[in-house]
Amino acid sequence: MEHLLELQNIVVRFALRFGDLTAVDDVSFTLDRGDRMGLVGESGAGKSVTGFSIIGLISRPGYIASGRILFEGTDLAHLNEEALRNIRGNRISMIFQDPMMTLNPVLTIGTQMTETLQAHMDITDEEAAAMAVDRLRMVHIPSPEKRLNQYPHEFSGGMRQRIVIAIALLMDPALIIADEPTTALDVTIQAEILDLLLELCATGKTGLILITHDLAVVSQVTDKITVMYAGRIVEMGSTDTIIHDPRHPYTQGLINALPGSRHTGSRLNQIPGMMPNLLTIPPGCSFHPRCPFMMDICTKQAPRLKYYKEHERQISCFLMENQNKGSI
Amino acid sequence: MFAFTIRRIAQGILVMLIISFLCFTIQHAIGDPVRDIVGISVSAAEREALREKMGLNDPFLSQYIRFLGKAVRGDVGMSFFFKKPALEVILFKAPATLELVFVSSVIIIFISIPLGIYCAINPKHILSRIIMGMSIVGVSIPVFLTAIMLIYIFSVELHWLPSYGRGELVNIGGWKSGLFTISGIRHLILPSIALSSIMLPLFIRLIRSQMMEILETEYIKFAWAKGLHKRRIWFIHAFKNTLLPVITVGGVQLGTMIAFTILTETVFQWQGLGFLFIEAVERADTTLLVAYLMVVGVIFVVVNTIVDLIYGLVNPTVRIQGTR
Ligand SMILES: Nc1ncnc2c1ncn2[C@@H]1O[C@H](COP(=O)(O)OP(=O)(O)O)[C@@H](O)[C@H]1O
Ligand SMILES: [Mg+2]
């Protein structure tokens, strides 16, 4: 059966004055209807750019240099602007990081909801308002009818993120891309919002791409994980296998860094060093300067993402290849 | 909104009190009300008697309170030159200036908004670069030079438009208006272009830079992600937010514009307040000068209060704070 979403060898570049910078390098993955995938990695890994490339909203001067984005059978990477517009907020919607910044301060909640419906459907103001109230109820906003005439500043951060989620749900999308939806919120509110996302995705057939730097968040909500490092996928598989048995040294480092992980005592184990700036990506495997298992080949040649049957996932690391051959 | 309105009006009254105090101080220091009434051919003894009778030897503060009491009732003294109440003289000339400022504002609004928005959404386009380049040139040319160039080109060389006076006027309830005759409008064109020429480049640049900043915000990115049409994003989501700082600056710049009417009216022999002001300076007509300052102060305060109220209508945050 056709996948809901299939990224094929996507490369995203930013055309800067001194030349092009590759922010997303040869990223491929698939998502089926109702799948919930976590896209994880340190800040600057290219997660947001990957997410925004799907709906054609990479900020200037970024562009998709090559690859295909098949969504319900159409290639979004080569679609005209009007057709893309009609998919945004309709078949694919987004949730942003900071709910204090996501809503327009001078427009009412009602306007910001009904305009979304009317951009995609020919319906009256009353019908649109009724649908808006219904979605506000779905995200557990009390007395939703009264809320339509209020402005964003009259709500708390957690409530605003619920409203943003309600907006994302308006057109019953097939896919929601949530970019760090809980990062800007208090810890207690974070848990509520995650529960809400899980509840909404579990009831419907909505697919979810959850972008976050926080593996703990991903392990609560998703059934699949894609780990990115410096614009490339380094490990991809089911959440269960990756959380309990990370194989790529970078993923292992991320999991060791989690508070309460089995490898830590009382302190946090950060991965030593920093992710390279995209302009100074080292030759070979881009992770090698920070890798505790670095070998000669890692400095010379870039590993390829391959499926390893015994690990039930894709990994991009020479350690795996060597184990496979039983060499060293 | 109600409390907000009340607070703004109270602030306006306070500003007017300060202006009136300054005006009175000026009049007290340099004016001579006795001369204004009887002229200079009267003996010293008679003048002193008159001073005493008019209360000019009273303490400063009680004179100010009397001045204020009269001013509230519309009496700011007699014009020495016109031998008429100063306010009457001013109100007679005010329509000319108000119409000039009004038409200039309309020109500024209807040109700066479309051009500013265009430059913000097409920053790299050649047309935007031309507009921005011209606006730099525009700000740096002084008003009187613009005015003289306009007169030279359109009156002297081309004979298209008149270069001085207001033309044919229509009397509407005491308000002599040039807006309702072809001749009146033809006379308005050059002066109002000259007057708007200082503010226009400034507003184009302001609208452009504000709008470009707004277009980079998260809520605009979210609006794109909702699949809205680009026109709605530009003209509703972005423009409404762009308006807020523009309204504020607009209110302040109105003062500058009134100051520039003095120059413009002088060049075009426009019989308005600015022209009157220069004449009053030449004739040392202190009472008239003070009356001018008071009236301009009132106009400025009223317009700024209205501008603030409009700001409150556009910005919901202000409205809510006001009701608390
Ligand atoms: N507007 C931009 N201009 C230039 N480079 C950008 C821009 N946006 C992102 N990038 C580059 O893309 C990289 C990945 O960014 P992003 O996807 O936002 O990372 P994250 O994984 O934290 O979401 C950044 O490190 C930066 O180098
Ligand atoms: Mg990001």
Structure report:
The complex is a heterodimer of chains A (328) and B (324). Chain A has helices at residues 47-54, 81-87, 99-102, 109-120, 125-138, 144-147, 157-169, 187-203, 215-221, 239-244, 249-256, 318-325, and strands at residues 5-16, 19-31, 36-40, 62-71, 74-75, 92-95, 175-179, 207-212, 224-229, 232-238, 306-308, 313-315. Chain A has 328 residues and is α/β, with parallel strands linked by helices. In chain A, the strands form two sheets. Chain A has an eight-stranded mixed sheet with strand order 6-7-8-3-9-10-12-11, sandwiched between helices. Chain A has a four-stranded antiparallel sheet with strand order 2-1-4-5. In chain A, strand 11 (306-308) and strand 12 (313-315) form a beta hairpin. In chain A, helix 5 (125-138) packs across helix 7 and helix 7 (157-169) packs parallel to helix 8 (187-203). Mean pLDDT of chain A is 89; it is low at 264-268. Chain B has a domain at 87-286: MetI-like (MetI-like fold). Chain B is built from 13 helices and two strands. Chain B has helices at 2-30, 33-38, 44-53, 60-72, 86-121, 126-140, 143-157, 182-215, 218-225, 230-267, 273-282, 286-314, 316-323; strands at 170-172, 175-177. A two-stranded antiparallel sheet of chain B has the order 1-2. Chain B is globular. The relative contact order of chain B is 0.15. The A-B interface holds A 55, 57, 59, 85-90, 93-94, 96, 98, 101-108, 115-116, 119-120, 151, 153-154, 164, 167 and B 217-229, 232, 236-237, 240-241, 244, 314-317, 320.
The profile of the biggest β sheet of chain A is: 8 strands, mixed
Q: CATH architecture of the domain at 87-286 in chain B, please? A: Orthogonal Bundle
Percent strand of chain A equals 15-25%
> How many helical elements of chain A?
12
Distance between the termini of chain A: 41 Å
Q: Compute the gyration radius of chain B: what is it?
A: 24 Å
Q: Indicate the CATH architecture of chain A.
A: 3-Layer(aba) Sandwich
CATH classification, class level of the domain at 87-286 in chain B: Mainly Alpha
CATH topology of chain A: Rossmann fold
Sheet bearing the most strands of chain B, described? Answer: 2 strands, antiparallel
- Please trace the helix and strand order of chain B, writing H or E for each element: HHHHHHHEEHHHHHH
User: Helical percent range of chain A?
Assistant: 25-40%
Q: Overall pLDDT of chain A, averaged? A: 89
Strand content of chain B: under 5%
